[in-house]
Structure formats: structure tokens, C-alpha cells
Amino acid sequence: MNLKRRELTLAMALVSIGLEAPAQNSNWKPTDRITYVLGVTPGGSVDIYARGIQDALTQLNLIQGQTMLIDYKPGGAGIISLQQLQRNAGNAHWLGTFHTSTLVAIAAGMLKADLKDYPPVAMMVEETQMVAVRADSNIKSATDLVTALRKDASSLKIGVAPALGSGTHLSIAKPLKVAGVDIKNLTVAPFKASSETMGALLGGHIDVISATAPVIMPQVAAGKVRVLASASPTRGSGPLAQVPTWREQGIAADFVTYNGLLLPPHMSAAQIAFWEEALRKVSQHPAWLALVEKNGGRPVYRDHAESMKYMVSEQKSINELVQELGLGSK
Length: 330
Hints:
This protein is α/β, with parallel strands linked by helices. The chain has two domains: 3-126 and 257-325, Bordetella uptake gene, domain 1 (D-Maltodextrin-Binding Protein, domain 2); 129-249, D-Maltodextrin-Binding Protein, domain 2, CATH 3.40.190. It has eleven helices and eleven strands. Helix 2 links the parallel strand 1 (34-38) and strand 2. It is globular. The N and C termini lie close together (8 Å).
């Protein structure tokens, strides 16, 4: 299926889901253990935010006294975690993670799945994608990086996770392309998790890392890493207030990713409504807000309908970007 057809199929599917609008009052409540499936390994931003959601749901007594288990199912660009949800269709005791990288994986042809089967229930975090080098690197700024890669696009090893064509890949490829770098000749090394990418950077196996703030900023604080640029449109708050954007450095590009939750197929309106309300309360919890800010994200809340609209519009723009960069399947 080509990109335009895939985009149209997703849009039509999500519109059809939207016809089943969730009710305002939910009669469904959890009566068993809740399993939150993550398609990543522990340690990255997806894991950090999932644990924050787990803690808030428990502290606020929003899951009726039930326990909540985080189940890691990495691999297959997310398909293994989605298969776990598929096997539990109709069971709202199962949750999954929605991430912009899921849309990227579909656009790039890495993930053979149809998100119409996995209703998004809430978007919770706007993430900051960053580019960094070791503190002892000769590359001091985004300008230095661009200059080196314009001269020889393959001269530096760039680490991304969890795969080529992922969000961390696009978030560095887009500004480099705008800056005139031949991105098709970049030397890009994919890792299973951003924690592994950081380990490779600190060990001297790669020269540049593209990852989210929770992965990069602790190493900045430790004096081991230097941030070159943020892919957000504007500077963040706290420690991120010191991080310049690509735009500030004369490169008119940005790439924002979002983190949220999915449900298994065949959810009822009552099941969706329960999780919408629970996650709305999580989004207002002081401990959750502090966690997001500490890790360089921006707290947001988009309900089921708003999340679907985002998926349609973002899939369109991501399809176009992947096609333009030559990263997707034809």
C-alpha cells in the first residue's frame, strides 16, 4: 500500500471509529489486574512516563484498588506490543502506549498494523527531541554539526532508537535536510532503546545521538554530554531553557512527538469513557506534572476524539516527510 492510500485508509478508519462517540458517564470499572504493555525496553522516556501514569492512577485510587503491571514487549517496531493488545480484544484491563513514532513506523513501512483497531484514549505528553554529542567533542553547536555533514554526510556516526525511520531519526533528519545536508548518505546506527544509544555515545562508538530529553539531560547534568539543539518550536522550561532550538540557529525545522495511551480492539464507549476520565485526572495530578517537567516534556491532555483527530492530521504530515526523505517503502 503506497503512502497516500495508507493515509486515506487511516483517515477513513478513524472517522468510522469516531462515529461511536464515548458516553459522558461510564458504567464500566476495572475488576481485575491491569496490564500496561510497552513496546520498548526499560529506561527511556516511554518507560518513565508509563511509570508516572501507573503511580498516579494508584495514588489517586482511580483503578478501584486493582494492581497495575507494566509489561515490556519490545521489538518489531511496536508490532509485538500491539499483538498483545490484539490477543486481549474487548478487555479494557489492558492498555498500550501510543507514540508519534508508531505513526512514523507505519509511514516508513516498518510496522504492518492498522491503528483503527487500537483506539487512542488519551494523549498525555509533548516530548522534546534533542541532538547531543559527548562533552569532549569538537562539535560545539548545531552549526558545527551541519558544517561537518555538508562536507561529508557519512563522516559522523549518528545513533537513533528504536529503528531507522523512527521519530528520533526523523527529528534529526528533517533539520539536517533543511540545512542542506545529503541525509540519504548519513551514517545512522539504530539501537533497540535510547538508553543503549546513550551508552554507545559515552563509550565512543558513535559521535551523535538523537533522543528525548529524559535520556539526554541527566548526562548533561553529569557533565558528560553537550546538547546541540532541540527540535521543539520554542525553548522549554527548567534545564531545557538553556537548550537552543534548531530555528534559533538558523535552521527552520522542528519535530514534536507525543506520548499517550491506546486500548485493545473492540472497546465499548463505556470502557473508553472510564479511561478518558481517569487519565484526565492523572493529567492534573501535581506529581505527574512535576515528573513531566523534570524530564523536559510538556503536559497535555487530549481525549479520545481529539487524539483521533491528531492521528489523522499527523499521519498525513509524517507520510509526506517520510516520502520526502526517502525513508519509507514505496
